TrEMBL record, chain A:
<keyword id="KW-0472">Membrane</keyword>
<feature type="transmembrane region" description="Helical">
    <location>
        <begin position="51"/>
        <end position="72"/>
    </location>
</feature>
<comment type="similarity">
    <text>Belongs to the binding-protein-dependent transport system permease family. CysTW subfamily.</text>
</comment>
<keyword id="KW-0997">Cell inner membrane</keyword>
<keyword id="KW-0813">Transport</keyword>
<feature type="transmembrane region" description="Helical">
    <location>
        <begin position="20"/>
        <end position="39"/>
    </location>
</feature>
<feature type="transmembrane region" description="Helical">
    <location>
        <begin position="92"/>
        <end position="117"/>
    </location>
</feature>
<keyword id="KW-1003">Cell membrane</keyword>
<feature type="transmembrane region" description="Helical">
    <location>
        <begin position="138"/>
        <end position="160"/>
    </location>
</feature>
UniProtKB/TrEMBL annotation, chain B:
<keyword id="KW-0813">Transport</keyword>
<keyword id="KW-0500">Molybdenum</keyword>
<dbReference type="InterPro" id="IPR027417">
    <property type="entry name" value="P-loop_NTPase"/>
</dbReference>
<dbReference type="GO" id="GO:0005524">
    <property type="term" value="F:ATP binding"/>
</dbReference>
<dbReference type="InterPro" id="IPR008995">
    <property type="entry name" value="Mo/tungstate-bd_C_term_dom"/>
</dbReference>
<keyword id="KW-1278">Translocase</keyword>
<dbReference type="InterPro" id="IPR011868">
    <property type="entry name" value="ModC_ABC_ATP-bd"/>
</dbReference>
<dbReference type="InterPro" id="IPR050334">
    <property type="entry name" value="Molybdenum_import_ModC"/>
</dbReference>
<feature type="domain" description="Mop">
    <location>
        <begin position="290"/>
        <end position="356"/>
    </location>
</feature>
Amino acid sequence: MTTWLGPEEWQAVALSLKVSFWATLLSLPFGLLCAHALARWRFLGRDVLNWLVHLPLVLPPVVTGYLLLLGFGRQGPIGSVLDDLFGITLAFQWTGAALAAAIMAFPLMVRAIRLAIEAVDPKLEEAAATLGASRIKVFVTVTLPLIVPGIIAGAVLAFAKAMGEFGATITFVSNIPGETRTVPSAIYAFLQVPGGETGAMRLVMVSVAIAIGALILSEFLSRRVAQRISGS
Amino acid sequence: MSLTVDIRRDLGGFDLHTTFDAPEGVTVLFGRSGSGKTSVVKSIAGLLTPQQGRIALDGRVLFDTAARIDVPVHKRRLGYVFQDSRLFPHLTVRDNLCYAARVSGRGSRDPKEVAALLGISHLLDRRTHALSGGEAQRVAIGRALLSEPDMLLMDEPLASLDGPRKAEILPYLETLRRETGLSILYVTHNMAEVARLATHIVLIDEGRVVRSGAPDEVLTDPDMVRMLGIRDAGAVLSATVAAHHPDGLSALSISAGQLLLPAVEAPVGAKLRVRILAQDVILARTRPEDLSALNILPVRVLAVRRGEGPGVVVQLQAGQDRLLARITRRSADRLDIVDGAECYAVMKSVAVSQTDIAVGLQTGL
């Protein structure tokens, strides 16, 4: 790979992998919670939560990126608190890229997990409760094992989406080589300079390969969840 | 353990307002589909919240709107066997059985013993999708038993099974009742199950209790015939096996005399309950001679109920027991069947099938 890809290209691929990995991993618990809430809980503001989760899907990415910059920038209400209390800065850092990717990928992750939860028969959860399982134990011993393939599918989709995130990322954290230049940003940068097409093409091929691989893996795992729940 | 229920809930179509006691033994909650039976059981288990009322198991209050008590489902300690077995598809049979022990720490009962009791020992390592309906339901019963409930709630546990599978499970339910001594609340609209299992009956219609009491009283109440279903109405008698004859018949002694039935699979001296359908009983004013039917019992008419159709239902005193006979109005008039009349009840031996006989159960518990 390193011989085929130039050092800068390889740097972009490695950074994209790192950003997507952390974006997926850290958003997973929140995704699970949101999906469970949307699938099973009845509460005031459920619709609002649903809109919020899906907003990044319909907003122009540059808007999401700009809102992130307003909120999480050094002067922003959340960014300044993070900076003062923990010394964490997100703007123009790879961690910011991870945050942008996580937020853009969140709706896909929640949808996949929510579908898996809704496919679990609530009657099984009722049966578990009559056998002495508290709500948390019902979730851990019945719901969770049945939706594991759905969770993996959601995570794979989110990872693939994070790998391709561009608009929000470049708006929020710019396009700094080695720090925030992910694969899409690198392709964009290549295309801005004469003779950059071959480098761009190599990265395009890497992107396509990763996206297709993720889709196949996600499809396979989704089928597993259906099998597992029907018990065959 | 005895259960006290007094609940109200608006079920849309009608108001559920159910008050009854389920004493020790097997209490059968009987009613047509849509009569509110399942809502009652779900309320007892805590899966449905009544708008008003009180539910208590011996001294332990499970639900009380006045005292603002609503014990959560998982703390009620009631085993629930659903119509569909609801086994966990991601677990093996063994793990399903051990589920309660795993989540609640309850479980001093040995899973192997329970599996043996229910005849599922050979299935322990199977996945649940490989089970037949009858096997799955026995696993579900075992799983509920192993949660060490104070009482077992069974909501039409045999309704989703076909005839042969039902016949396969009924003996296990009888064994269960004998071996564990656990009190059971059993919901059904199948008279054969009522006759074989019930030690107490609660009849429910449109969410209200119409009648409750011992099976021999309730089942032979001519006023209840319409509700129980005219073709299913019949008496349940306690009997003891007196002898097995070489010609394939068994003699059973009942309080009114002797019954000859096709060979019963129980040793001499065994206690049985025998269900005799009202439509299988013929009445005669004088003792008939030269008749193929082998069972002729002297009886006295207690009550005659005329319905809308051509038939009447006659309640009879036969020794200590009661019988029901369904005859035509024309015959009743011709034979002058009125209250207090002495006559003979005639029953064909072959009219009683093996599924109408329950071993080891007495009507009085």
